Structure formats: C-alpha cells, structure tokens
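Why should sequence recovery work at all? Because a backbone constrains its sequence more than one might expect. Tight turns favour small or flexible residues, buried strands favour hydrophobic ones, and helices have their own preferences. The token representation captures these environments compactly. In the example below, the structure is given first.
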C-alpha cells in the first residue's frame, strides 16, 4: 500500500470516528432523533461507497414513542454499517407500523438491500449481532432474502397518553352555558357512535370516498368542540385519502378514531372549572 493510500484511509477513519462521536446513538430518546443521528453517522461512509440511503416511514407512526431505542439504535448501527459495505448503489431504511393499539405501536424497522443476491450471507454476522440486541429488548428479528436482503427488527413502543387540546371553560363560555356544551358533546357522540362501529367494514372495503366522508363528519364535530388540533388531523387525513389508497392510511385513520373517542371522554369527565389544554 502506498503512502498516499495509507494517508487517505487514515483520513477516512478520522472522519468516521468524528461522525460517530457527533452522532452518538446511546442517548437517543426518539425515533426521529435516532434516524437523524444515523444519517449523520453514515453520511461520509455512504458517500465513499456511492451508496444512497433512502428512508420510508409509515404515516401512522407516532412521533413521541417511548421504548427500547438504545437497543434499536445498536442493531441499526451494525446493520447499516454492513449494508453500506455490500450495497449495489442504494440501501433502504423502512419503518412500518404493524400493530396499533391504545397506548402501543409495534414497529417493523427494516434495513433493505434490493438487488444484492448474496446479501444474506454477506451480512450474516451483522444480522446475528442485531438479532441478539433485538431479542434482548423483547423483540423479534426477521431476515428475508429474495434477490436481496430485508433485515427486520420488530419491537413494541409505548404511545404516551395525551389529552386533546380542548379548553372546556372557554368552550362553555363561547357556547353560552351547560346546555349548549351538552349539545356539542351529543353531536360528537352521535357522529362517533354512528360511524366507529362501521369503521372496520368501511376500511375493509377500501372505500376511500366513504372514509373521507366519515373523517369530514367527525372532524366537523371535533371542530365544534374546540378540539382544533385533532379536527385538523382529520381534515389532513381526508385530503390524503384523495390521492392515497385506504390501505396505506388505515392505521392512521384508526388512531384518529381512537383519539376522537378519547376527546369525547375528556369532555364528559372534565370538571366544570378545569380547562384541558
């Protein structure tokens, strides 16, 4: 090896070490933060190997999940390092919500190498390490290979409960008293009772028009109740369904329905003098 080659490799190692220090993964506390740090951590290495790392995130993903991010970070660290070494021009980091229940989301976080037939064998040591990390955190690790590689970390995360942005005192004052407030609650209850029971069947048919109408009705009732943030989310989902299939947004719609039901519960149970913000 020539002196120039040695110096080049030394500089590359220095850049990688600096990137690892600047993008330390051990204290990451959220998935968006983890993804950002991984991007910084591997940017130089990916550039040297002419590899483009792309990101595909499920729109139903909650942004403030709580869970085993340190274990996930360590698993993705070793998988991405190996993926860049063996990629054929591109690698994909994919985040899918595969189960969405009250208070919990189960994720598939996958590192994918499309079009690399020998990827499973080449990344076998990295997958073994990642499997150990994921299973220690209570998760499941999957490896799929069909002309490439898809290494999947399956982990459950907690969704912190959040009260809807509803100010009951201000709402009561604007409406003029308890009677009007009761009418708003009844309107929201009627919209939910009439439609939530039909949600499964509606989503199963993939009827985007019916789903958009449902979202519009419930968002309107939430707007009447001054749950403006949640109402805006419903309208955004309604707009998204104009261009995306129902299957792509099913979990997001279910989450919205759950949050709308929660908003009604807070309205019914809130003390007369307590604003919910």
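From this structural description, the recovered sequence reads:
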């Amino acid at each position: 090896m020539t002196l120039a080659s040695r110096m080049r490799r030394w500089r590359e190692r220095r850049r990688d070490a600096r990137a690892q220090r600047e993008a330390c993964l051990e204290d990451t506390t959220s998935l968006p933060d983890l993804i950002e740090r991984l991007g910084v951590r591997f940017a130089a290495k990916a550039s040297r190997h002419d590899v483009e790392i792309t990101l595909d995130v499920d729109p139903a993903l909650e942004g403030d999940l709580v869970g085993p991010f340190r274990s996930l970070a360590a698993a993705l660290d070793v998988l991405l390092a190996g993926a860049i070494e063996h990629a054929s021009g591109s690698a994909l980091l994919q985040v899918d919500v595969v189960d969405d229940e009250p208070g919990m989301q189960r994720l598939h976080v996958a590192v994918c190498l499309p079009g690399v037939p020998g990827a499973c064998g080449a990344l076998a040591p990295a997958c073994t390490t990642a499997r150990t990390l994921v299973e220690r955190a209570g998760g499941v690790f999957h490896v799929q290979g069909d002309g490439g590689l898809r290494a999947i970390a399956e982990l459950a995360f907690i969704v912190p409960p959040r009260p809807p942005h509803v100010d009951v005192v201000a709402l009561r004052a604007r409406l003029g008293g308890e009677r009007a407030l009761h009418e708003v609650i009844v309107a929201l209850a009627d919209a939910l009772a009439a439609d939530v029971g039909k949600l499964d069947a509606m989503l199963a048919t993939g009827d985007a028009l019916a789903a958009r109408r449902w979202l519009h009705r419930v968002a309107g009732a939430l707007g009447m109740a001054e749950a403006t943030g949640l109402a805006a989310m419903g309208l955004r989902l309604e707009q998204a369904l104009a261009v995306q299939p129902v299957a792509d947004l099913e979990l997001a719609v279910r989450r919205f329905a759950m949050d709308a039901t929660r908003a009604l519960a807070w309205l019914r149970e809130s003390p007369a003098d307590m604003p919910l913000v």
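A few observations help interpret the result. Confidence is low (pLDDT under 50) at residues 271-277.
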